[in-house]
Amino acid sequence: MKRFQMLGRAGALTALTLSLAACVPPRTPDAGPRAWQDEVIYFAMTDRFANGNPANDNGPNRNAGDRADRTNPLAWHGGDFAGLKAKIEEGYFKRMGFTAIWVSPVVLQVPAINTGSGPNQGKPFAGYHGYWAEDFKKVDPHFGTLDEYKALIDTAHKNGLKIIQDIVVNHAGYDATLTKTNPEWFNTPADCAASSNKTTDCDLAGLPDFKQSLPAVTAYLNDFVRYWRDTTGIDGLRIDTMKHVPDAYWKQFFAAGGAGDPAKVWSVGEVFDGNPSYLARFMDDLGSPSVFDFALYFAMKDHLTGAGGNLDRVADVFAQDGAYRDPTRLTTFVDNHDVRRFVSEVTERGGSAAQAAERLDLALSTMYFSRGTPSVWQGTEYAQSGKGDPYDYPLGQGNREDMDFIKLAGSTLDERLGALASARATYRALTRGAQQELWRPNGGAPVLAYRRVMSGVTGQAGQPVVFVVNGGDTPVDLSTLSGGGIPLLGTFAGTALTEVTGKAHTLSVSGGKLVGSVPARSVLAVTAPAGAGASGTVNPGLPEVAALSVKAGDSAAQLSWTPSTDPKVSGYRIYVKQGAGAERLVNFAPIARDQGSFLVRGLTNDASTTFRVVTVDASGAESRGSAVSATPSSKNTVKVTFTVDARSQGNGPIELRRFDTGQQLELSMTQTGRGLWKTEVELPLFREIKFKFGNDGPGAKNSGYEGPGQGDRVYVAGTNGNAYSGTYDFIDKPVPAATIEGKVTGAGQPLGGALVEATTADPSLNYALTFSDGTYTLFAPAGTHTLKASAGGYLDATRSATAPQTGADLNLSRDTRTKYTIDGNLSDWTAPKVTVQSPNPGVFGADNNWLSLRADSDAQYLYLAYTYRVAGNSAILYLDTGAGGAAQADSFEAWRRAATFSGGVNGVDAFVARYENQTAQLRRVASATSTPEVNAADYFQASSGTLPEQTVELAIPWTALGLSGAPAGGVKVMGGIFGGDGYGAGDIIPDAGSTPAGANTIGTDGEQRRATFTAPVTVP
Question: Could you give the angle at the alpha carbon of 1004 between the alpha carbons of 999 and 1009, nearest 5°?
Fold first, then answer.
């Protein structure tokens, strides 16, 4: 319960504001402007924050998509400048210690578009977020007027708050007017295809991508930014999609006198990438004052959200701070509007709501006590949940839900944020000090410790701060750590410690070490007057390291030496000097005495680098050191072998999917045995690779990704024998030693693709898909389990099995609700709703000729039956189930054909494709390119005949097409005999010669025999 909960809410807010104000040092006007390292940023998405003026809820009211609809998570919800202004005047931000507000883009948005898929399909999808600009110099009326925006900024300044405006220079909104008045300003698909840098020259999600290399575009975008900078008095810019804009634009943007001149306005760029060296380039080479620290975000997301997290990976991020000239300029965050909220990451990993709030406190505390400027996403103050982009989730489940200020009454996180901000304002080391590692787990207890130290500042403000993170689910007694505590190495002069946020604690100094207990899922930060320190003092009696060598990699180097046996040596420190720069200390806490290697990361490529390794005695004094030099380079690569045991995935095609580049890279793998997959990849040496294995096959669980609720896999290229191996789905969770094996049949026939789950274990991990012969391998904890097998068109079956076990077979009974017997015999198709005859051969000849098509439907199924002759080609049947769909098949990722759909066809939503006499594939059309395959066990199919004569029969549940039932307008059907990828058809149905006839056509040979479908048959 909150300590002031008995007060009325208004009185409580006043009391808290006064209590925090009393402990935050006042900022006087003569102190000069605050540096951005001293700020604490609150991110408010204006439309979803507070509605201060309901009169503007419908904005320009151009159409239904402009009107507010709070039942639609993709519509406008009514938040505006007036709501933000009122909260500033109320003291909402100040009481939590925030000094700056980042507001989402304010410019006029394009009209809403139609939501093409997902749980909100068919609803208007509006630019409520602000990233779809129509006019770059007009305020969107949903937010208010220009004068109201200026009033908001003026009010913020009067209350000591800065305003950061979100801007976009990468793209305009869908179908924006600029694309018609200045079409040459935008990259085309041809530009994208021809580009060697698709990150900058290709569109994102189909948004019109500016061609910044054109002087007119550069001038337009610069003028837009200058307008807002100079007209409104904003203090900073948050720059969206920064890495998708060419380097040349940023160099002129941040140059003296440029639109983003740091002397006139501060900026923080969104560079969605987890590589510190890549992030550093935007600050140190291109001139951005700051970028968001995605490297730290990824580490906290993966390793602070559950007890199975590895805090060594968090430490690895901080260990790369040498990549930045000044890491205190980074802007840090635990989540934002583009990713799953932190508390949902915790609950996805099995944590309770209470644990999620505690872990959010843990992550926020780690962020506030670490280098960089913290930024906090709205709703964090009451642990708001959110599974991801609301496009993919129904109302109430997305990560951009409306603020619910009532929920603050049940939260203490708002108070905690105020205490954290107060600590940063009190102890200068937390904003400007060096951050030096004192302790990391190294595979042991989940404890991480750092010190923040500041020189040249006297009194309390200059005191060092030591913070300790316990990422586990049980308290940790620091005296049980190796060595009896965390060595403080002269950090404090005394033994009396103060927790900087006022938390109760038992920490103390004993024998120069930090001891005491750190509660589960928590952070403690203590301070005392500064000690003498413990680095830089020379002990001439110490021996030097022997056999020192170095191997340079990409932004990293591996140092090796012979561990010392001299009793005077207690460990090693490493110093680095790159080019003409100053020498810097890599590790304050000495490396263990028996360790003979160290990977230095965060180096600048192509810069001659000198490494000095010193031995350290028990008091922290050092030898003079031995030196060695090397030059890191991205050209230093290594071939790495990845293997995965994916027997649980049946026939699914396994891929390796990398995430460390800021976008998913899909790398194919080769099957080397039953369920075993392998690939070799040339990778930059010593690059940290983050990845998961994926299953693109039909019926793949967990959206095709392994490890639900678990972090990414991590591998440093060139280590562990240049190889990585794993078991599918088991990343943070241990692999069960036992397996259950058996076979699944349906009506006596093997069921490839059926799903077998251990319902008494964890069905998200302990499951299996069957191979084509119906066999399966299920990894399960030892003991007795209840198994459930399921497949579309069959009744579920269960049985008991004890791991380990073989022969655990299951037989499924046919679901007899189908109108036709799906066996390849069409004699029972006596009166279907649709029948088309097409006996005349097409341009490919008599052996590539579609002959007949029958179609029918009922409340549960769409039925299709067709006959054709085929030799060396494919039969494809396209389905239009409603609004939307693809207008062409030219870009499909699978079964790409020269086919166009228009006129009486809304677009293709699904298709059935079959080469010669192979198994047919049913695929959904998710976009102009994405055509995921439907699990073969989720529908019935049968075929008969000897090549070239073929008969195919299918019963497809409406659910397999993404529908809840038969569509009101029926299903439009058309098909043909097609050539290979990129080519058209030799015969189509219906056509001019079929009965009934259709107006569909086949193009000339010069047109690659393009099939144009405008007149399908409709199955009512």
Answer: 75
